[in-house]
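Hi W., the 2'-monophosphoadenosine-5'-diphosphate complex you wanted:
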Amino acid sequence: MTDNCFSVKSGFIRAGVMGWPVDHSLSPKVHGYWLRHYGIGGEYVRIPVAPDEFLARLKNLQKDGFAGVNVTVPHKEAALATVDEIHPLARRIGAVNTVVVREDGSLYGFNTDGFGFLENLKAGVAGFKATSGPAVVLGAGGAARAIIVTLLDVGAPEVRILNRTKSRAEQLADELSDIVGGPLIVGDWSARADYLEGAALLVNTTTLGMKNQHPLDLDLTALPPAALVNDIVYVPLKTDLLVRARARNNPIVDGLGMLLHQARPGFEAWFGCLPDVTDELRAQVLAGI
Ligand code: ATR
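Structure:
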């Protein structure tokens, strides 16, 4: 047992993940591992909740005996609109993925996706600094939004957004430049390879490269050799993008760590200690994918 995760809480604690569908969520595996590993009395369960039931189920968390929940697709925006207090970062990201029930029954919402993203990069590459140069983000969905806000928050000097549907990237850039500044540059998807010039970081947040999806078609020639390449896709773990980046000696970080690291603050809030991401945890989660 690791000795750096002594829970300050007592009694049997319940938490879970609300989603629709929620069958494929890996969160129960992650939290279940930590509960066993640290010998904490509690459980983390799947809570299937249809959209029309979400509000009532969230408001009933205390009555139902929950210390809090993770919130996943399609409820992250509804959670933002429902909780009593919102962490400023969750407001900037526009989504809540972690909810804590406070002693008076009120709900506190925050977002750990950006934390997970950043911690994963730091764990993968010693001395990683977002300030070291421009970042290229492929995609303009919810994951891209959390990542772009986070990168600008920690001082990325420029973020280039490339998305198949350019208008979506433009809208995201407009909204975010008001909230977190920039500069944010939007390019044509067809010219995406040109935007790699001078980049320090490349992140794929699209579904391209995922099992049963099309591969990500991206010529890496213009990408500087020192640029870090990260794919948030983790099935497969080594996507074609990561394999090609590695082959030209770019540092790479896979996407599994983002999922594992984003779970840590919620575990700490509910169960009372900040858990570690270890090789054993990675192996156990991978075995279940
Ligand atoms: P999430 O909220 O998890 O980020 P999403 O909102 O569904 O997911 O976003 C998926 C991303 O993958 C989008 O940027 C999407 O591009 P569009 O905005 O044009 O839909 C991108 N994506 C999905 N399939 C794609 C494809 N075949 N080619 C290019 N981009 C694709």
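The chain has a mean pLDDT of 96.

W.
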